Predict the structure.
Amino acid sequence: MFAYPWIVLALDIIPTLFTVVGNGIFFFTIWKTKSAHTPSNTLLAFLSVTDLLVGIICQPLFIATMLQSPVPCCTVEMMVYNFVFGITSWTSFLCICLISADRFFAVYYPYRYRAFATCKKFAYITAVIFTVSLAYTTIDVIFYE
């Protein structure tokens, strides 16, 4: 597919390594530090996990698909890549929207925010976000591929 596949590999491996290492360190730090278990950090840790999945699963699948097949849109690897990429990208997008809403409520309603925002509620909301992303991507892959 590419005239120089080693260039594509080199250009994709470097950001992948930064993605995996950086998000892994961030998630591990939040997980191990009890004082960092706040509602806002719960959302950031969830975003870190979705970005970590991109670095661990999506990027290697993209590299394998692009270097392996002359017509990448017709392979099983590309369908798996589209499915995983859809889940992680929708989850990241919705999580960033939730982080924005969280910061808005923390700034404009600081007293109500402390009563409303709990780690348990945000964990539930992130599970809903992942479920919605999974359902949307499943429907998209089944009916539009």
The two ends are 21 Å apart (CA to CA). The first helix runs from residue 5 to 32. The chain has a mean pLDDT of 86. The chain has one domain: 5-144.
